[in-house]
Amino acid sequence: MLAAIGFALSACGGGVHVPLSESHPPHPTYKVGSPYTVKGVTYYPHVDYAYDSVGMASWYGSEFQDRYTANGEVFDPGQLTAAHTTLPLPSIVEVTNLQTNRAICVRVNDRGPFARGRIIDLSHRAAELLGFAGHGSALVRVRVLKEPSLYAAAAAERGVVSNGEEPLPQVATTVAPMPRFFVASPQYRIQAGPVMTEEDANRLREQMIGSGYRDARIVFD
Fold this sequence. Notes:
By secondary structure, the chain is α+β, with helices and mostly antiparallel strands. Helix content is 14%, strand content 28%. It contains three helices and eleven strands.
């Protein structure tokens, strides 16, 4: 356990942030972890595939670039990742900005945030896609996706970083994939797209709302 070697938890939001070194190469793993205490609060990591919570999200960026996350991956603010206090590492969650109705899927690979009232810390890229990178926080809904989480966990047990669908390179890249926009209506399970620009996605969403699908929202793939 890295913490036993004397590395401290970051108060900002990420968990164990250790600089890369030749003696400690990246080593992605699956872990749930033991209870731990930060700022007088004790957290109890556990498996919870029914997790569905609403609260404030924050984000962290380049100050932790190229440092280890709590499960041994390498943090890259350009990737779609996140920190959570208790979910297994990795887990795949859907995060919806309740102010803009935007939703994306991210890989939880770190511990945090440890600020009162916040339920998830997102990478800069994730916050950017959700539309609040220019602000400190946003009201979001966080929902665990069970099947992708199981896939990502199995891949991590083999030392492979996965987004829950297909293996990703073990070496982080600073080039984030181009998002594809869809418009979805949860009530009728209808999904239209993909379109490649946010402008087209907004236009398609308005068309769906005009056709009677009033809960249509923009999602990213």
